[in-house]
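Lab notebook, bench 4. The sequencing result for the construct came back, and we need a structural model before the next group meeting so we can plan mutations. Quick request posted to the team channel:

Model the 3D structure of this chain.
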Amino acid sequence: MEASNNEFLRGTLKTIVLKLLAERGRMYGYEITQSVKDRTNGEIMLTFGALYPVLHKLEQEGFLLTESVEVDGRLRKYYSLTPSGSASAVQKVSEFERFVEAMQSLLQPQQGLSVG
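Done. Here's the predicted structure in token form:
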């Protein structure tokens, strides 16, 4: 995805993270970035610099729980949704779906209207 499209991503990062955690239950940062990359065929690439501030903000808002687990001698921080995080995931996905539908309506050519 082009750098100019990052503005679209910034507004949807919370929704993306909440949706993935709602589906998967528990994930760590790298796993989230790889899941986004895989599911979008490389069209969306999350950087850690963009992801971790969103994870920390969601945690501060009470939407995420964290659990540190030692894996191969290193601590890995897993994120999962709280009950309010699960409710927020449903709400944010629904709001985003309505937004996408509205944008699709705006982008479709209108019949009978002349341009210019």
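The chain has a mean pLDDT of 87.
Will bring this to the meeting.
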